[in-house]
């Protein structure tokens, strides 16, 4: 509760918690001094009341000074001129001391004298060592002045007043000198530490920006050739091939898919580290998602003579709300690992729905368990497998490959969704991993419980796709290989197309009513895809314009859709992905 109060108070004073550390410390020093001053003066007022038994000028002066100090510190809401604040608060301290001391000749005995000792330290925290030294010197001058003033106005009938006053002046001077020296040393060290901290933070921000630029560049440069490798391999697999050729092409495709998975893992790790991971919830069929996923991996399992079974509990809702992309990604990592490390037997996938409670059965958790018959995980390594770049043994990297990122990223993704990934069990007969994620049921479950995935086929959907047959596409792509991939995909879908090699040529070739949709690369010479899209929109083009880019960093999709693109495809582009995007775009017929 107290922490929340201070948070709200600093928000009122407009002290941003994301500000530089020096700004936060100095701001807190100012308002802490102000409220400490007010609290002490309340005690002083009470003491004066008991002493004088009546209202005096000292009471009025103390209240006025407190009001001015509190008013001054709340000026932090409008200004953070720290040297001004330190000087002004010090001036108020001196003014209060003189106002309370001179009219009734109390001199060194003023109750405000301790603030002469504290003022140099305050200046050190707020404005640095130079003002500390200046304030300490001013305090010594003030003490000397008060002493000489009180010497000229001795109390009557008091032979001990002057020597006692001199002793007090000397003691206070020693205290001021000590506080000034300590304040000077501390503030010099603190401000030096502030400078180093801010320089370190600046370097960290620069390093983070450089890392983001490097990852963005490498992602783009790797995805561009991967688009050619995977796209043309997929096109070749749809042609007449003998068994040996088909085996070689499948190997190429699997190798390219592994490289793409590693690239995606590295990008996800970067997003997690930077706190930019976005959870995007949508309605989807868990049964359909996991069945398709199992179908996808069955071919890989069969190549190693492994079985792959999927069992979905009958109580699992047909449609749920959750992040289907992240759920698929985590499940893919777990299934991939299970197949990779299993040499005999196979992999079993069990899926069930765990309601949050009896009275609220619509909300619950997806529980997915992937069990394999592999060698298991040694006890000594079970605490490390969820750490980045860790695998159970060094020999695993040599024999099975991989970066050791899969489980680490899977757990981070699951926890970002509000779930988790844990090692349920492991022995010499295999390992079992459990993935949980919160979901909300939308449609009731069917009676289907067990799904035996059909063998994966490399053959794409029929080329005379009814939804896209005869659709006219303007393809704007500068890379020859990527253009070749897109042309083959479009031809296999039955679409007709015209090509442009840069944005400027694409704008010139566009004729209203002549095309149904535009596939637009982002990075191109002469004119990039974003500028070309803007010019087309400015010219009144309302047809779907789909961005095709190798930029896959966090926020890129939202950025391009916000610019005016209808949809967003990340390279390497899959034929099914392209067909789905074009089908939706052509069906709507207008820009999103």
Topology summary:
Blueprint: H1 2-12, H2 21-52, H3 57-73, H4 82-101, H5 114-127, H6 129-151, H7 161-237, H8 243-274, E1 282-285, H9 286-303, E2 307-312, E3 319-322, H10 324-340, E4 346-357, E5 360-372, H11 394-400, H12 406-416, E6 420-427, E7 430-443, E8 450-451, E9 472-476, H13 480-492, E10 496-500, H14 503-509, E11 517-521, H15 529-538, E12 545-549, H16 556-563, E13 567-570, H17 575-588
Parallel strand pairs: 2-4, 9-10, 9-11, 11-12, 12-13
Antiparallel strand pairs: 1-3, 2-8, 3-7, 4-5, 5-7, 6-7
Query: How many structural domains does the protein architecture include?
Result: 3
Mean pLDDT: 79
Low-confidence stretches: 391-403, 447-464
Distance between the termini: 46 Å
Strand content: 5-15%
Q: What is the 3D form?
A: elongated
Order of helices and strands: HHHHHHHHEHEEHEEHHEEEEHEHEHEHEH
Helix fraction by DSSP (H/I, runs of at least 4) = 55-70%
How large is the count of helical segments? 17
- Beta-strand segment tally: 13
Biggest sheet, open or closed, and with what strands and sense?
8 strands, mixed
* Secondary-structure class: alpha/beta
Give Rg in angstroms: 37 Å
What does this structure look like?
The protein has helices at 2-12, 21-52, 57-73, 82-101, 114-127, 129-151, 161-237, 243-274, 286-303, 324-340, 394-400, 406-416, 480-492, 503-509, 529-538, 556-563, 575-588; strands at residues 282-285, 307-312, 319-322, 346-357, 360-372, 420-427, 430-443, 450-451, 472-476, 496-500, 517-521, 545-549, 567-570. The radius of gyration is 37 Å and the shape is elongated. The two termini are 46 Å apart. Helix content is 56%, strand content 15%. The strands form 2 sheets. Strands 1, 2, 3, 4, 5, 6, 7 and 8 form an 8-stranded mixed beta sheet that branches. It contains 17 helices and 13 strands. It has 3 domains: 2-204, no CATH class; 277-451, Heat Shock Protein 90 (2-Layer Sandwich); 472-588, Response regulator (Rossmann fold, 3-Layer(aba) Sandwich). Strand 12 (545-549), helix 16 and strand 13 (567-570) form a beta-alpha-beta unit. By secondary structure, it is α/β, with parallel strands linked by helices.
């Amino acid at each position: 509760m107290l922490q929340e109060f201070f948070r709200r108070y600093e928000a009122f004073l407009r002290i941003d918690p994301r500000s530089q550390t020096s700004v936060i410390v100095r701001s807190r020093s100012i308002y802490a001094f102000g409220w400490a001053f007010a609290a002490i003066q309340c005690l002083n007022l009470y003491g004066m009341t008991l002493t004088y038994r009546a209202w005096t000028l000292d009471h009025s002066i103390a209240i006025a000074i407190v009001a001015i100090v509190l008013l001054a510190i709340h000026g932090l809401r409008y200004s953070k001129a720290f040297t001004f604040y330190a000087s002004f608060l010090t001036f108020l301290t001196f003014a209060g001391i003189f106002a309370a001391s001179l009219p009734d000749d109390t001199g060194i005995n003023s109750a405000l004298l301790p603030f002469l000792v504290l003022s140099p330290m305050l200046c050190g925290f707020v404005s640095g060592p130079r003002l500390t030294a200046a304030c300490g010197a001013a305090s010594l001058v003030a003490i000397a002045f008060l002493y000489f003033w009180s010497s000229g106005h001795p109390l009557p009938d008091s032979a001990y007043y002057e020597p006692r006053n001199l002793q007090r002046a000397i003691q206070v001077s020693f205290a001021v000198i000590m506080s000034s020296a300590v304040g000077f040393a501390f503030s010099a060290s603190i401000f030096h530490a502030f400078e180093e901290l801010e320089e370190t933070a600046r370097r960290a921000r620069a390093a983070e920006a450089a890392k983001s630029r490097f990852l963005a560049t490498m992602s783009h440069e790797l995805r561009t050739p991967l688009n050619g490798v995977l796209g043309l391999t997929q096109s070749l697999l749809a042609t007449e091939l003998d068994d040996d050729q088909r085996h070689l092409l499948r190997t190429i495709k699997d190798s390219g898919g592994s490289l793409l998975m590693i690239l995606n893992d590295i990008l996800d790790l970067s997003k997690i580290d930077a706190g930019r991971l976005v959870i995007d919830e949508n309605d989807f069929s868990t049964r359909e998602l996991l069945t398709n996923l199992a179908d996808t991996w069955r071919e890989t399992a069969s190549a190693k003579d492994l079985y792959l079974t999927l069992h979905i509990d009958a109580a699992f809702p047909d449609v749920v709300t959750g992040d289907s992309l992240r759920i698929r990604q985590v499940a893919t990592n777990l299934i991939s690992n299970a197949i990779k490390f299993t040499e005999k037997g196979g992999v079993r996938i069990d899926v069930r729905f765990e309601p949050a409670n009896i009275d609220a059965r619509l909300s619950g958790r997806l529980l997915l368990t992937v069990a394999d018959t592999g060698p298991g995980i040694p006890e000594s390594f079970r605490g490390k497998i969820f750490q980045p770049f860790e695998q159970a043994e060094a020999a695993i990297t040599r024999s099975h490959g991989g970066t050791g990122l899969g489980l680490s990223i899977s757990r981070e993704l699951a926890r970002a969704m509000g779930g988790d990934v844990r090692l349920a069990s492991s022995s010499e007969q295999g390992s079992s991993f459990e993935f949980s994620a919160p979901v909300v049921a939308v449609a009731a479950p069917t009676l289907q419980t067990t799904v035996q995935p059909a063998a994966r086929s490399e053959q794409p959907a029929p080329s005379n796709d009814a939804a896209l047959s005869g659709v006219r596409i303007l393809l704007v792509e500068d890379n020859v290989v990527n253009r070749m991939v897109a042309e083959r995909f479009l031809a296999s879908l039955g679409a007709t197309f015209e090509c442009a090699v840069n944005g400027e040529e694409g704008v010139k070739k566009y004729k209203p009513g002549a095309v149904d949709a535009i596939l637009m690369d982002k990075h191109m010479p002469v004119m990039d895809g974003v500028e070309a899209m803007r010019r087309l929109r400015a010219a009144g083009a309302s047809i779907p314009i789909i961005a095709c880019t190798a930029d896959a960093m966090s926020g890129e999709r939202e950025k391009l859709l916000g610019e005016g693109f209808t949809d967003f495809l990340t390279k390497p582009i899959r034929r099914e992905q392209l067909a789905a995007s074009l089908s939706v775009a052509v069906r709507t017929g207008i820009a999103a």
